[in-house]
Amino acid sequence: MPASDQAWEVVFVEDLDSAWVVRTADFFNTHFPGVFGELCHPELFRWKLGRSNPAGEGILAVAVSGVDVVGVMTATMKLIAADGQSLLAAFTGDTFTHPAFRRAGHAKTLAPGTYDLDDYLNKSVFGRLAEEVTQRLVERGVEFVYTTPNYQSRPAYSRRGLYAEAPLISSRSWHRPCRALFESRLPFRSGRMLQKLVDAVTWIFRPGRRIRPTIDSFALTSTDPLAEFYEAIDDVWDHQKLEGKFTLVQDSDYFAYRYASHPSQSFVGHLVTVLDKPVGFFVTRRLTRLNEYSTVCIADWLLSPDQPSGLFASLLHHVMANTEGVHTVSLWSNDREVSRQHLLRLGFLPLRKMPVLIGTNEFGRHLQTSGRSWAMPIGWSDNV
Predict the structure, then answer these.
(1) Pairing of strands 144-147, 85-97
(2) pTM here?
(3) Spans in the chain with pLDDT lower than 50
(4) Beta carbons within 10 angstroms of residue 210's beta carbon
(5) Are 307 and 279 in contact (CB under 8 A)?
(6) What domains appear along the chain, each with residue ranges and CATH number?
(7) 20 to 30 A Cα–Cα from 242, which one of 12, 234, 252, 357?
């Protein structure tokens, strides 16, 4: 039967051990291979949406036709700190539709408030998933919803007014070329000379050069809780939250869940101290693509608010100094939270803008008019 004649319906998967989770992983591996940078395993959804998340269990919604998954959307719970309060938030993602159902097929039942199958919510898998997941989040009392869509799904997110772009909290992808990139793109001697020149110039003009932090690096794993480091993280977070900034809650529970317990990706934690006092923590991951192009991604960071702005530049320089065999160092950053001039002086190049869309509920509308921004590193999304 052609897809145009097939009916589909939205199913909320309550049991993460059910066959629907396995079928969801198979859906990605079959129709969108490599979208996660690797094979998609059912355990990824059990980790991301399960009870180990300190913010609460998430949502897995699938559009199904018979026993086949033809569309997916997830919502991962987050905790947001704003004005000294903790708010429940959600990041929506994994929004994919089977290619054959993007302009074909129809809902098995009419959406509330609609009267025929030609209505958008009855013929768009994405639209129906977004509508029903958003409604489920409202019922849960979620106050802030955000997402980082690609260029294909961005118009669909905004179509019915459920989401709107938030320029002040949107991010940008920055990349710093390293030795391996120069040597792979230029003749060996020319590449090495250019790399040395770039390193020398950025060393001379680097911001934060008078700051001398101590940085201890260690693998983040679920089997070794590293309690002493997590206690230091909580000390830094306690100082951060007193500032009343709008930010993701970044206590030790968050870092342990988000990075140490990830089922398939390995991260490195870096504890930053100045004069034996914990002042920061950041997380990196080395990524190697199929073409053997590698990057060290700075996934997340937490810095004490009483430290000079040059401290972050010192951390970046530490990462750049340990890049043997790495082509680039990369990060996402909002220009208002991390100095654009600091990044440029360290040799980082601004590449793609990474728009953040937020829900248009009361809190979302307030945020749009408040002038607030946040750092939005890549680890606050599900892109790493």
Answers:
(1) parallel
(2) 0.90
(3) none
(4) 8
(5) yes
(6) 3-143 (3.40.630.30), 171-350 (3.40.630.30)
(7) 357
